[in-house]
Amino acid sequence: MSLLRTFNDSRTFCSSLSPPAYVIEVQSQAENDWLLELTATLCEAPNKYWLNGYDTDNSGTFTWINGQNQTTYTNWHTGQPDDFYGIGSEKCIVSSTGFEGVWVDIQCTESRPVVCERNV
Ligand SMILES: [Ca+2]
User: Where's the C-type lectin domain (predicted)?
Assistant: First the structure.
């Protein structure tokens, strides 16, 4: 997880894999727990990495881009999402390696690691 990319560049990276993948989407507590263990094992240092959620309409409700469904399961850190820099300023989501995998909304232009997934 040493390679850092913006959210859009992370999407491009995942889709360029063969077979194509997408930025990981967390649909359930079980998936969050699985991902937390995976990233705790494979990632060298505490970090925040992209999830594939996007706040399309600046409502503070996030949509999974690949699944095209609203987030039903969420794991927001206390006080998040908060659009810290103003409405619509933080349209992307990162999860955490450690800290129970809590989510934070951030600016999509930040450079972060990414976990890609694909359907098998
Ligand atoms: Ca935030």
Answer: 1-117
